[in-house]
TrEMBL record:
<dbReference type="InterPro" id="IPR050425">
    <property type="entry name" value="NAD(P)_dehydrat-like"/>
</dbReference>
<comment type="similarity">
    <text>Belongs to the NAD(P)-dependent epimerase/dehydratase family. Dihydroflavonol-4-reductase subfamily.</text>
</comment>
<keyword id="KW-0560">Oxidoreductase</keyword>
<dbReference type="GO" id="GO:0016616">
    <property type="term" value="F:oxidoreductase activity, acting on the CH-OH group of donors, NAD or NADP as acceptor"/>
</dbReference>
<feature type="domain" description="NAD-dependent epimerase/dehydratase">
    <location>
        <begin position="3"/>
        <end position="205"/>
    </location>
</feature>
<dbReference type="InterPro" id="IPR001509">
    <property type="entry name" value="Epimerase_deHydtase"/>
</dbReference>
<dbReference type="Pfam" id="PF01370">
    <property type="entry name" value="Epimerase"/>
</dbReference>
<dbReference type="InterPro" id="IPR036291">
    <property type="entry name" value="NAD(P)-bd_dom_sf"/>
</dbReference>
<protein>
    <recommendedName>
        <fullName>NAD-dependent epimerase/dehydratase domain-containing protein</fullName>
    </recommendedName>
</protein>
Amino acid sequence: EHVLVTGATGYIGAHIVDILLRRGLRVRGTARSQHKVDEMLRARPQYAERLDFVLVKDLTEPGGFDDAVKGVDAIIHTASPVTLSEDLDREKDLILPAIRGTEAVLLAAKSEPRVQRLIYTSSFAALINASLLANPPAGLTFTAADWNPITYEEGLTGPAISAYRVGKKEAELRAWHCVREEKPQFDLVTICPPLVFGPVVHPVARTAELNHSVTDLWRIACGAYPYPPIRTVIWADVRDVAVAHVEALLRPEVSNMRFTLASPEGFTNQLIADIMREEFDWAKQAVVEGTPGAPVPEWPRADGWTASEKLGFTYHTLRECIVDSIRQFKEIEQRE
Ligand code: NDP
């Protein structure tokens, strides 16, 4: 089987590429930078015969994936802007690349009769109801049945996170609409990860290049205090997120399902700091102590069990995730 992975030089995409390769599949990645493609290939000489790349520089270009999709049996679509910088143009930089990128992938998938399944990397952004978060009802649990009630207008006028949420939601809706209304030859599985932590396997030369969702881990390791503000206690390890994508691709019985991912453990930045200080000698100095052992607050939880059961994987613990991440980020810093 030959699998197309969009965003293959990104944080989650590169982990997916590696699992597919380890399982013996052929992989074509899309990327927007030849430099990152060269780095990806250089780090994987053993897979030279089963890994190649196509440059798709602009997600919003109609027909952008038409060449990339030729001859593949399945697509995992991860490419989308993941940045929450407030000076971005909400529509041009965040919303439209998410939506148009997914539309271009859908169009390409319809044009290649070999494609049997599309996996779309959605997000909690597509299902969370932010208005419940300020004062969550007791026992609130987010599941794959939930959809974010946010409107397009709120995405245009709100903070960058709102635009990100609108982009992810609208893109996922486009994918479901296509599969339900147009009944193409492929089916769909969508995966909604929460905040993702864990080590990197994509090209990262300097800690300043770390992807958005792990930067706060590194800031805590570097002594940030008060700890960076948190908006959630729900997280998942990137290795579990990637396995979920690959299992979603390979298991016929999960056809047209939507999954939420969530580690059974809640996290706080205090808990992350505690783990760093317990596990690394250097961190006893570098990481601010705060209030060790402070409990994880009551906060909505999420259904991570359905994915774990139907896709057959076990979540990494927070301790494993933080230790593996921080050990690696420290090595990257030492090479800078
Ligand atoms: P990254 O930023 O590491 O990866 C994003 C990928 O999309 C990269 O390959 C990037 O290319 C590509 N990309 C981004 N913007 C554009 C653009 N405008 N045009 C072309 N390509 C673009 O982030 P993640 O790996 O974390 O994100 C992957 C997916 O997972 C996204 O769809 C995101 O919404 C979703 N997700 C992530 C979560 C997280 O906490 N990390 C949580 C939930 C969902 P390049 O490699 O050149 O930078």
